[in-house]
C-alpha cells in the first residue's frame, strides 16, 4: 500500500511540475533551426565580393544556377513547385583568395500575375493568368490547397487556409542557391532589374540544427535503457538458457529489461479461455487503415496535383477520405472493454474505493511509449535526415520541445490543439478523459441490477447525443478540415471530447450486452443482420461524398457531424456482439486469426510512431512526388512494415519492461493469476493497448 501511495505522490508532483514548467518562460532553445546562424553569416561587403567572383567564373556560376532556379515542370498539371538541387547547393564550398565561398539554399515565392520590365526594346509586359480562361485548371487550383489542408488535418498537421481567390494560389515556389553571406535581395538583383516581385519563404545552411537539451536527455535516457537491457538480458540468458533454471524462479525485477523474456511475451500467440479474439482483427485492421490514410495525406508535394485532386474528390477515394471514422472504431473498443473488463470483477463500491488505481493504471500503461515518441520527435528524428521540405519535421520538433507537458498530461486537445506534440495524440487525450469520466456510469452498471445498468448506459448515450447535437446545430460546423472555418472545425469539433464521445458510450453498451445478454437467432435472421450491417457501413462511408459537394446544406452537415460517428460505433459494436455469440461465421474466423494477435498488441505503438516517422521519411524528398494509386499502396506496405518493426523493438525494450515494473510496484509482485483472473487480465491488457 505504501508503494502505491508513493507512486501516486510522484504522479501528483510530476503533474504539478509539468503545469508550472509549461507556463514558465525558460531560456531553453526550442527552435528546430539555428536562426542566429542565419544572421551571423550575413556580410554585405563579402557578399558583393563573392558575387563578383561568381560572375567572373562561368563554371562556378553554372554550379549555382544548376542547384537553384528553374521553372516548375508540370504547370498545366497544377504543379507550382521546383525544389532545385538541395544537397548540391549546400555542398558548394570553394576557397577564394580572401574568403570561403559556401552555398545557401533558399525558397522564394514568385506570384504569376505581375508586370515585368524588359530592359531591351520590349517595353512592359503584364501577364494576366485570367486571360488564359482555363476553367478546369482554375477549379483545380481553387481546390488544390483546400484538399491538401484537409488531408494534412487528417494526419495531425494543421495549416492556415489559403485565400478564397482561385488565382491567389498561382504562386511559384522556387529554389535558389546563393552565397551564404548574401540575402536573397542582394543575390537576386537581376529580379529587381526586371521588376519581378517575390517574397522569401526560408533559407537553409549546412549544420543549422542546434544541439538542444532534448538531445542530451534523449542520449542519457536511451543509454540507460540500453545498459539495463544488456545487463538484464545477460542475466536472464545465464539463468534460463545456460543454467536451465525454471524462468518462474528467476527474479522478475532482474529480468524486467530482458530482450529474451520480453520478446517471448510479445510473440506469444496463445489465448486464454473467454478472450474475445475478434477484437484482435478489428484493432489490427483499423490501425492499418489509419496508416493507409496517412500514407496519402502526409506526402509533401505532388508533381501532378490535378490528377491527385481529381481522384481525392471522386467516389473512388472514399476509402481514404472516409478513414476518419477509423478513430471512432478505437473509441468504441475502448468503451467496450471498460465495461467488459470491470463487470464481474468489481462492485460499485469497490470501484469507487479503487478509482484512483483505475485511473493510475490506465495512465501508466500508456505513458512509456508516449514519452518515448515525444522525446524522439523532439530530438533524434530531427537529425534523421534533411531536405528542402524538412521544415515540417523541424516544426514537429519545436512543438514537442515546447508543448511536451500537455501531451504527457493528455490535455493537448484543449491546451494547444493546433500546436500539439505528436499531432495524432488528440485521440489519446479524449480517450483518457473519457476513462476518467467513465466511473460515473460504471458505478451504476456494477450494482448488479440490469434495469439500473441499462438505464444508466442508455441515459448516458442519450445525454451525450443530445448535448453534442445541440452544440453542433448552434455552431454550424462544416464537415471537413477545409474552407474558411477549418480551424474552427478542428479545434471546436474534431478534437473536442463532447463531439467525439458518443462512440465510447455505444461501446460501453455493447460491452455490457456481451457480458450479460445472450440471444438465439435463426439463420435467416443472422443473414438479414449482416446484410443490414454492411449496408449501413457502406452508407456511412459513401455519405462522405456529398459532404464534399457545394450543394450540401448546413442542416445536412449538422446531422452528419452529430450521428455518423455513433452510427459507425453501432456497426462495430453489433459486429462484436454477433461474433461473440457465434453468429460471425467466416467474418469471425477471419478476425480471430492468430496472425492478428501481434498486430493488435503493437497497434498502440504503431499509432504513436507512424506519423512522426512518416513525415521524417516523406520530407526527405528532393523533388515533387508523382501521384499514382499503385505507388501509394506500395508506400503503404513499406511504411507499415517499417513501423511494425520499430514498434516491436520499442515494445520489447521499453513498454514491456515498464509494464513489469508497474505491476511490481502496484501489485507487490507478479503473481500467477487464476483461470478467471487470467481471462480478465488478458482482456484488460487489450484495453490498455
From TrEMBL:
InterPro entries for this protein: Acyl_transf_3_dom (IPR002656), Nose-resist-to-fluoxetine_N (IPR006621), O2_lipid_transport_reg (IPR052728)
Organism domain of life: Eukaryota
Gene Ontology MF terms: acyltransferase activity, transferring groups other than amino-acyl groups
Protein name listed in UniProt: Nose resistant-to-fluoxetine protein N-terminal domain-containing protein
Keywords: Membrane, Signal, Transmembrane, Transmembrane helix
Nose resistant-to-fluoxetine protein N-terminal domain location: 44-205
Signal peptide: 1-22
Transmembrane domains' residue ranges: 318-342, 363-382, 426-447, 454-474, 494-514, 526-543, 563-583, 604-622, 642-666
Pfam families: Acyl_transf_3, NRF
